[in-house]
Amino acid sequence: MTTQIKKLVILGGGTAGWIAATTLGRIFQNSDVSIELVESEQVGVIGVGEATVPLFVDFLRRSGIDEADFIRRTQATFKWGIEFVDWRQPGESYLHTFGPIGRQIDGHDFYQLWLKAQAEGDVTPLMAHSPEAVLSRANKFYLPFKAAGTPFANARYALHLDATLVSAYLSEYAQGLGVKRTLGHVGEIEQDDGGDIRALQLTDGGRVAGDFFFDCSGFQGLLIKQCPGAGYEDWSEFLPCDRAVTVPSARAPVTKSHTVATARSAGWSWRIPLQQRNGNGYVYASDFISDDEARAELLASLDTEPLAEPRVIPFTTGVRSDAWRNNCLALGLAQGFLEPLESTAIHLVSKSLAHFVRFFPGADTREPLRREFNRRLYHDYCEIRDFLVLHYCTTGRSDTPFWRACQAMTPPDTLREKLSLFRAQGNLIPGVEDFFQPSSWQMVLTGMGVTPLGYNPTVDALDYAAVARSLAAGKDAIARAAATQPSHDEFIDTYCKAPPL
């Protein structure tokens, strides 16, 4: 029998822990539910990825956080999307940005209109119709307060962040909402006969009791591992990379407004520009390259001097069989790990919390809510897994053993079905709560050279001359509007520049 939840306990003070504290602290600020976060000074922040998706900006706004203040204090920069370099073939690149591409005409999907135009001989690239892509290629930002009535009215952007500074910022903010912070290291975990956690015994003699616990302890999964049935589903057969080497480097003279993900000999590297440094990393498969070779390849790829010694982080791609077991919910790295190719880690924390709030258990209602939560979260992970695998299985590269293995892999059945549908005539049917909408799939598939055999024949009923004029007018309007916008660095320097170190 469950009881009414009055005390929430969060173990772990990294990004996942403090996002949970901020989200829950905001919800229960004026209630009789108390929240306590326990963090150990012995455990550092992993910070594998420092890039986000637009939903993180939505989180800041929902939480009542001043966006400009947050950007200044976390040395953040703006992100229109990700540039994928050398993924299809060496020397080629493409952009995956946020937001839709183009607009419908008479109810017809824009991508179908573009396919029709291509068949008629129009060579305009797909991304010329994406406002975010045009701004990103020009390394510009925009004036949000002057966007109404322009092609940028519905522009979507994310942020590049310093994970350590984000944790510090959200810690201060969450405590201002009434969240209690306790410093301590867990020694023992008290559980009842049914497996529910009752309290955390700290090594300094302290004891933190609660009704529901959030495990944000990173790869260790200190709490969730104690709950029966919370196994781990290994997805290495689909995503073979199992290690990352990371290193910060000096700030580049020009701050890019997108993440750069470059294919390497045995994986891929990221470059994330912050206001006062760059974040760099190399995600690789240890079956194809040694740690020392990966370090050397990453250091050779840097465009600015390294600021520390590279560190290697091993991981196993996959997800908990049940992220919510008993009265414990795993978040962040304790819940699962998908390589940061599409910057989805923080999104999965927020999505998990949104699911949990939706299914927040009352007295005697836990089990059906828990099962539905786990079902939905597993679907979220599978969707993102398939989208990541897409980048590998569609490669045209065969220049190294790693990329030849990627070409030979058997994708998940769900992805193979989606690719089969797309290759027929460009169809993509989104799920009810899918994160990656059809435009994202279209950008990556087009960038990787996957071309449908045809387009939807109903488009032929339209006046093509009028369609062509509409496409050209939309493209030209984006280009003209982008030309008047400030550079990325100019916008930051004017509105949200970080104080000097």
UniProtKB/TrEMBL annotation:
Keywords: FAD, Flavoprotein, Nucleotide-binding. One of its GO terms (molecular function) is nucleotide binding. 7-chloro-L-tryptophan binds at residue 79. It comes from the Bacteria. Pfam families: Trp_halogenase (PF04820). FAD binds at residues 13-16, 186, 333. Gene3D superfamilies: FAD/NAD(P)-binding domain (3.50.50.60). Signal peptide: none annotated. The active site is at 79. L-tryptophan binds at residues 342, 346. This is Tryptophan 7-halogenase.
